[in-house]
Write a structure and sequence with these properties.
The chain has one domain. It contains four helices and no strands. The chain starts with a helix and ends with a helix.
Length: 97
């Protein structure tokens, strides 16, 4: 039984680390784009995205011992994934033009 618990704890630790890396990447990337890129792409403003991602990152750090299935972790992870999948590519197309 303790082997199962150890395996589950290891999996949860890996998920937490991956979530932290994704949130860190999204926050740093959001800080690198200018406010004009956000407006030109028709997305939320830069301060809004930085605030959303920053709060999610801070929650991840503060609640590091909480389960990755915690509602706060899930919401912050979804926000980071939305930024990476939707907002970042929209702004990247503006740079290539």
């Amino acid at each position: 039984m303790s082997g199962i618990i150890a395996f589950q704890s290891g999996v949860m630790l890996i998920v937490l680390i991956i979530a932290l890396v994704v949130k860190t990447y999204a926050l740093v990337n959001a800080l690198l784009w200018s406010a004009q890129h956000y407006e030109a792409a028709g997305k939320l403003t830069k301060p809004a995205w930085v605030a959303i991602l920053g709060v999610g990152f801070a929650a991840q750090i503060i609640l590091i011992e909480a389960s990755p299935l915690n509602i706060i972790h899930l919401i912050a992870s979804v926000a980071a994934i939305v930024y990476i999948v939707d907002v970042r590519p929209a702004m990247a197309t503006l740079r290539s033009r």
